Amino acid sequence: MNIRIGLGTDSHRLEQGIPFVLGGIFIPFDKGPAGHSDGDALLHAICDALLGAAGLPDIGRNFPDTDPAFKGADSKQLLKKVFEMIKKEGWKLGNLDCSIHLQLPKLAPHIDEMKAVIANLLETDPSNIGLKAKTGEKTGPVGEGRVVEVVAVCLLVK
Ligand code: MG
Questions:
Q1: Could you tell me which of 111, 38, 97 has the C-alpha nearest to residue 70?
Q2: How far is the CA of 24 from the centre of ligand 1 (A)?
Q3: Are 136 and 144 in contact (CB under 8 A)?
Q4: 9 near 152, Cβ under 8 Å?
Q5: What pLDDT was estimated at residue 73?
Q6: pTM for this structure?
Q7: Ligand 1: centre distance to CA 1 (Å)
Q8: Tens of pLDDT along 24-48?
Q9: CA 126, CA 129: separation in Å to the nearest integer?
């Protein structure tokens, strides 16, 4: 069996008046991730983990933030496209594990829904998706609520 590990990271600045989207779902909050697309840092980190594992160009090269086609883009569609590219190379997901660094909003009530969305997009069982939320202990850019950061690792198998 052929096995590949992949690593992806992403961060987005949080600003007032932007819808808060993470893991493909909207969560009520007064701030949201600034970005050219919808700013979904979790799905972007997952895209890069998958692309990295397959040795393909990263998300920025596939979906440039200078391209008006991706302005306000739903990142679920970007992840879907990435997974199609991965499948075309013969890979399927072994498992995915992610850590989200975010002070607020609290993510615990939303983790299962995010897992279900991601598992559906990656055609796998939610038990193959790990999602952990960590605060910044009220210090630094994460703890002061200025940014959301995500680290994702995945295994691809074929
Ligand atoms: Mg991003």
A1: 38
A2: 13
A3: yes
A4: yes
A5: 87
A6: 0.97
A7: 32
A8: 999 999 999 999 889 999 999 999 9
A9: 5
